[in-house]
Amino acid sequence: MKRIVLFDGECNFCNSSVQFIIKRDPAAHFLFSSLQSETGEKYVKQYHIPSDVDSLVLIANGKAYTKSSAALHIAKKLDGLWHLLFLFILVPRRIRDGAYDYFARNRYRWFGKNEEACMLPSPEIRKRFI
C-alpha cells in the first residue's frame, strides 16, 4: 500500500525533507504531492485536514496523520536506523506537537521560502509525485 506525503511546496526545509525521504525509501513506500497542488488540495478536503496544517501530512491506511505523528510514521518506514525515531510516539502528543509547531512556525525564517522553480527529478523519481 502506498503512503502519500503532502508537503509545503514553498518551504525549503519541506522540499529538502522530501529529498531526504526519497533517498531513504528505495522500496518507494511513499508518493508525494505539495499541499498547494490540485492533488494536495483534493486530499486535504477528502481527509478533512484542518486548514492550519501547512507543513507535513501523511495519508496511510485511510487515515491522515499530521505534525509529529506524520513525521514519526514516515520515519518508521525509512531505511537505516531512522525507524527507531518511531519510539518518540510514546511521548505524549501534546509535547511532540508543541516542539513540531515551534519548528514549523520558524521554518521559513530558518530555511527560507522557495520562490523559484522546483527541482527537476529524474523520470524514476518523478513517478512518485502525484
From TrEMBL:
One Pfam family assigned to this protein is DCC1-like
Q: What's the domain of life for this entry?
A: Bacteria
Q: What GO terms are given for molecular function? A: protein-disulfide reductase activity
Q: What is this protein called?
A: Thiol-disulfide oxidoreductase
The gene for this chain is yuxK
